[in-house]
Amino acid sequence: MEFKLKTISKAGIPEAVAKAELYRSLNEPEEAESICRDILAVEPEHQLALRLLGLAITDQFCGDASDRSGEVGKLFERLAERYERLYYTGLLHERRAKAQMRVGRTPHTLAPLFAEAMHCFAEAEGLRPTGNDDAILRWNRCARLLQSHPGFVEEKESEAFDAIDSSPI
């Protein structure tokens, strides 16, 4: 049996956005995702719905191939402001890395994701609105994760040791 989706009204969009935010805060990202898709069906470039949908999908990342990072990247590319495109793309990379870290991926496979996230946050920092330190906060979180995770510290020490070992005497 096939069901035809119903369309929400434009007047209902603000309340729908509030519900999507609520469902994300209640850790029900699938519900938030569905609501955002309803909003975007009515207003395809609704900036807040694009951000919330991307975040709701990243809330569902489990660290494997089923993660829809490509879809999220395309959503964030549709954000109108360059700062937001960079900041949210950084979040995408950070959340991918964290999801993969949770399932035990090796540090050398995670390092490029964290590096890309930090690159995006650093670029966003230069464009940030006055008083908005979100990109700095995210960059610092990535840095602290890398500093505190034994695999990253060991790998960095190993690389330094290899560099010392291979230098001519």
What are the salient characteristics of this protein?
mainly alpha; 169 residues; 2 domains; disordered C terminus; globular; 8 helices
Give the SSE map.
Blueprint: H1 13-25, H2 29-42, H3 47-58, H4 69-77, H5 82-102, H6 107-127, H7 134-148, H8 150-166
Description:
This protein has 169 residues and is mostly helical. It folds into two domains: 8-60; 81-169. Helices cover 72% and strands 0% of the residues. The protein is built from eight helices and no strands. The protein has helices at 13-25, 29-42, 47-58, 69-77, 82-102, 107-127, 134-148, 150-166. α3 packs antiparallel against α4 and α4 (69-77) packs antiparallel against α5. The longest helix is centred in the middle third of the chain and has 21 residues, at 82-102. The radius of gyration is 19 Å and the shape is globular. The chain starts with 12 loop residues before the first helix and ends with a helix. Residues 154-169 have low confidence and may be disordered.
Query: What structural category do the secondary elements indicate?
Result: mainly alpha
> Main sheet, how many strands, which sense, barrel?
none
- Give the distance, in angstroms, between the N- and C-terminal Cα atoms: 76 Å
Shape: globular
How much helix is in the residues? over 70%
Radius of gyration: 19 Å
SSE ordering: HHHHHHHH
